[in-house]
Amino acid sequence: MKNAFKIVTTLFCLILPSTPVFAADVNLFIAASLKEVINELSDNFAKKNASVKFIKNYGASGALAKQIENGAPSDVFISANLEWMDYLKKKNLADVASIATFTYNTLVFAGKTGKASSMQDLGKLERIAIGSPKSVPAGEYAMGAFKKAGIDKQLEKKLVMAKDVRESLMYAERGEVDGAFVYRTDALQAKQAKILFTVPQDLYPRVTYPMSLTVTGSKNRDAAAFFAYLHGDDARSVLTKYGFATK
Amino acid sequence: MTPLTPADYDAIRLSLQVSIAATLLSLPFGFAVAYLITFVQFRGKVLLEVLINLPLTMPPVVVGYFLLLLLGRHGWLGSLLDEVGIRLIFTLKAAVIASAVVGFPLLVRSVRIGMEGIDPQLINASRTLGARWPDTLMTVILPLSIPGLVAGSSLMFARSLGEFGATIIVAGNIPGVTQTIPLAIYEYAASPTGESMALSLCLVSVAISVIVLFLHETMAKKAARSD
Q1: Nearest-CA neighbor of B137 among B226, B32, B42?
Q2: Do A171 and B172 touch (CB under 8 A)?
Q3: Above 80 in pLDDT, residue A3?
Q4: 20 to 30 Å CA-CA from A6: which of A19, A42, B152, B199?
Q5: Which CATH number does the domain housing residue A234 bear?
């Protein structure tokens, strides 16, 4: 009986997470459109600070906000719109003092050449991918632009709702849709899809990426160091390299 | 509880539409395959059985991905269909195909169990009385397979209602066109503000499942009594 108990306890200990709790993990919750930028920056940072281990979670900003709300371990949050940052602020999950603007972006329509050259051409298309406006900022910006341009009703049954902005880009890349609303920086990453037109800025608010430490993250020294690094020149040059506007 | 939005009603209607279409479409094929496996001896039977049952054990996402490779605009079959103007991907037809493929093994299984329970003497008797095989099939095997067909269809119908993985890949997530209940719930669940909406739709989903299972049980009992 005693032995059995020992075996069970040992097995139990073995299946418990093998990383000790005091390890310097930094959990990044990042808008999907920043994937390459944050990958590069965290790699650079890890090279200089060998003890830091990053756990990266890329996705729709709204989905990330919800995960944080539900208790997912997170230290740094970067959203692709102000809404989801405000949401976490209201829930007292974001460290208010740390909130700052990371970068800016613009919304474009990407697809195969010749499909469309302005918002008015969209009515002629069959399938258009956008991020689900319920959680994907790029989709919300696009939806707002449709409403302002007065074409939302016309497009209603043509919109394929992707789980994040990168999924809508992938649909356009594979040619499964006529085009997708993505950020300019996403479209620059694409191989098949080309930027067909830029959405006029008067149709949607400027795409702004707020960043913050979470309340738990503000107590994590490595997270705070990385957060400070995101304010620096390295971050700016990487952002510029991938086509983001830093001003 | 939040009242359902028009998009939610669309999702419920689409779910029922997809499940009914997938089940009806599969019935004749399910019957034929079950007949082949139960009554006909041929080479490669095991292979057929494995192929049929594969979607039951494979992750639905894998099924969806294979369907995408097959039916996508640049897929083997999809590009051919594209030339004659038929488009499957991101349409309701694709959702029906996905549900049909994933639910098919359940249908075949139930029909087969029904057929295996048929007394072989009845079949032999019909043959000695001069019935040719199509007659035996239509007048002996088919009527006696009805309980299996009913059980199989209700199982398949229920499975189709829940189909998510393959559907989201080939049919996408288009509100009012291909967004079924599971896809709508998935969308709500990713949104911080969608919690109560997700719950309303979940309750609808549970209610439909309960009704289907209830019908399944009563029909199974009825079939057992009529024996």
Answers
A1: B32
A2: yes
A3: no
A4: A19
A5: 3.40.190.10
Average pLDDT value over all residues in chain B: 91
For residues A48 and A127, membership in a common domain is answered with no
Contact A176 B190 (CB under 8 A): no
Supply the DSSP symbol for A49. -
How many structural domains compose chain A? 2
Identify the burial level of A151 via C-beta atoms within 10 angstroms of its C-beta, where 0-12 means exposed, 13-18 middle and 19 or more buried: middle
A60 touches chain B (CB under 8 A): yes
The structure tokens 């993250």 sit at A217
Q: Does A132 touch chain B (CB under 8 A)?
A: yes
Q: Which of A126, A134, A174 lies nearest to residue B190, judging by beta carbons?
A: A134
Q: What pLDDT is stored for residue A20 in this prediction? A: 45
The shortest C-alpha distance from A151 to chain B (Å) reads 16
Strand-pair category, A25-31 with A159-162: unpaired
Of the candidates A31, A141, A134, the residue with the CA atom closest to the CA atom of residue A80? A31
Closest partner residue to B191 (CB to CB) among A62, A175, A176 is A62
Chain A residue numbers touching B186 (CB-CB < 8 A): 163
B197 to chain A: closest CA residue: A134
Asked if pLDDT for residue A115 goes beyond 90, the answer is no
CB nearest to A65's CB, from B90, B186, B192: B192
Q: Do A161 and B187 touch (CB under 8 A)?
A: yes
Q: What pLDDT does B18 receive?
A: 97
CATH of the domain at B115: 1.10.3720.10
Provide, as residue numbers in chain A, all residues whose Cβ is less than 8 Å from the Cβ of B74: 174-175
Q: Is B172 on the interface with A (CB under 8 A)?
A: yes
Q: Bridge partners of A180?
A: A110, A129
The answer, yes or no, to whether residue A9 has pLDDT greater than 70, is no
Which two structure tokens, joined as six digits, stand for A71? 């208790």
In Å, the largest CA–CA distance within chain A is 76
Examine the domain organization and report whether A214 and A161 are in the same domain. Answer: no
Q: Is residue A41 one of the residues assigned to a domain? A: yes
Q: How many domains does chain B have?
A: 1
pTM: 0.83
A54 occurs within a structural domain: yes
The chain A residue lying nearest B168, using CA atoms, is A162
The per-residue pLDDT for B142 is 93
Q: What is the complex's ipTM, to 2 decimals?
A: 0.77
Which residues span the domain enclosing A29? 2-104+207-241
Residue A227 pLDDT greater than 70, yes or no: yes
Which tokens go with A173? Answer: 């890349």
